[in-house]
Amino acid sequence: MPICNTTLEYRGGLAKRLLDSRHLRFNEVRERGSSTVKRFYTNMKFRDFSFVVHPQEDKVILKGSWPKFHNEGQHNYTRYTTGDLSLDIITLSELFDYDFSTGLLHSLEAGVNLDFTGFLQPYFTPSYLIPHFICFQGRKPFVPMNSIKGIGNGVECAMSNYRIKGYDKGLQYRLLNPLLRLEYDCNLMKELQPLGIRVLSDLTDLHKMSLLGQRVQELVEDIIIVEPLATDKLSSSQLKLYQKAERPSFWMGLSSRNRHYYRERLREMTEAYSQYQLHETLCQQTRKEWETLTKNCNIFAGVHESSTPTSKTENCNIFSPVNCGKRYKVLDEVAAVSFGVVVQQSNHEQVEEVSQSERYCQVTGLPLHPQQPKSKVVGITTLKHDANTLSLLRQRYGNKQCKRAYHSEAYRLAHGPRNEKSNPPNNFMRRIKRAEADCNLFGLEETLRLTAEQQALLNYFDGTEKAVRPTLKKCIKEDKDTIRDSFADSETSQHRGVEKTISATGGGSVVRPQPLTKGHLQKKRPNTVNILDNNVLELFPIEPYGS
User: What is the CA radius of gyration of the chain?
Assistant: First the structure.
């Protein structure tokens, strides 16, 4: 089953519908010493769903397992596809006459149940594999899983925003055959922000479910599993590493760089000398099972293609994917930032299809679909999920070198577009700041002349703390810039790189800068502005007093 337990938040009239429903019975919690009801909660689960109603906030929290709801609240060990999830959302919506596809996700469990019947025994069984789960990414060890209801055998690794769990679901439900459950338990939806998953209807989008499957696959690949090797073929250093790798304390004591180094060495040893390829088979079966569960078209996709609602969808609105870049408190905020992919009116009479606005990198022109809405250039998220984009950036920027060898190629290549966009403005701004610090006698506005291209570079900082003064940006260099000098004489003089040509009318002078050499930059004089870029500043030397 790709989706299991979820925690959802609803607003907008659902509280009253639930309290008046004949399917639910509620207990109430009152504030101490007051007759005001603080919240209502169901005293019995409705097909494994529990409801908590907050009447003062008009908020409903729904918790439960969708596979158990599909199986009348009995179990969740059978296959549960995205098509089943779509039908169950419609069923729940029809029961309470409310669109449950609009629920905001607060937590999510996603994973697969793997049946290794027919594989080499006893190696491909949960009882053998689970004890060989050493740690996750070498950062945290797996510990016994105490949250299994009933009899069970499992381990889990708790990170800051999510948990990775592996346990024997067959033993939990006393099945004839073992069933290994690998699960990604996300308790902070910020983790799913790059995937665009924020509301319940997003879990029926095949593209987003494919990205979620890649996330689960990456987590399984990052599990360090020490499996049987042909030790007689190992060198002394490899044998020493193999013996140490079985201890979680060995990985915990390593630095991040050494941890990556030894993980790669262990992986190479496993690929070369493993007798059963346990980890590789585990990853392959995870990918195949996820594809099997999500390959069928969902009901919501059918509604997108047709403007006529069917009997299955007439009571179920389709809510568009939303910007998940922050944590929303009310559904009105979600509706306000909708991407506008599909919007269905509340009267169920018309479905308006609006094409999604494509976003492209400002440097390379490549699409930015899986990245954050505010992204402007190709980043590591796109490169991780798009091999073609990674290949194109490899051709453009070559083999990027990095100080830390454990960084991935996607991490290194992601710096290319970002630096190409930000480096020119930042370098130019540093020259401006250095020149401003050197201008002691005259203000920078009096000595600075910018071309149109240079002014465009400064526009990069508009609206930020580094934005330059408007008067500074108005100092645009033109072909016929003139600066009046009432003390100028009718003569032409050459002085340290600056040519003064006095006009024939005697009314002023035209100051034209000449290219500065490295000698002018190295021999800095107290009465001369320091120039770092020939195309940026015009130099006005100060004549010594009395000369």
Answer: 33
Query: Considering only CA atoms, which of 59, 48, 40 is closest in space to residue 5?
Result: 48
Query: Which CA distances in Å does 116 have to 124, 151, 285, 304, 471?
Result: 6, 20, 9, 38, 72
| Residues 43 and 68 sit within 8 Å (Cβ to Cβ) | no
Query: Over the stretch 474-490, which tens digit does the pLDDT of each residue have?
Result: 665 544 443 333 333 43
Alpha-helical regions (H) of 295-358: 299-305, 331-336
The CA distance from 531 to 516, in Å, is 8
Q: How far is CA 108 from CA 140, 145, 200, in A?
A: 21, 18, 10
The phi, psi pair for 52, rounded to 5°, reads: -125, 120
Which segments of 406-458 does DSSP mark as H helices, in order? 409-413, 415-438, 444-447, 452-458
Residues sharing a CB contact under 8 Å with residue 525, sequence separation 6 or more, in sequence order: 541
Q: What is the pTM of this model?
A: 0.57
Q: Tell me the residue type at 453.
A: E
pLDDT for 205: 92
The residues that bridge with 10 in the sheet, in sequence order, are: 60
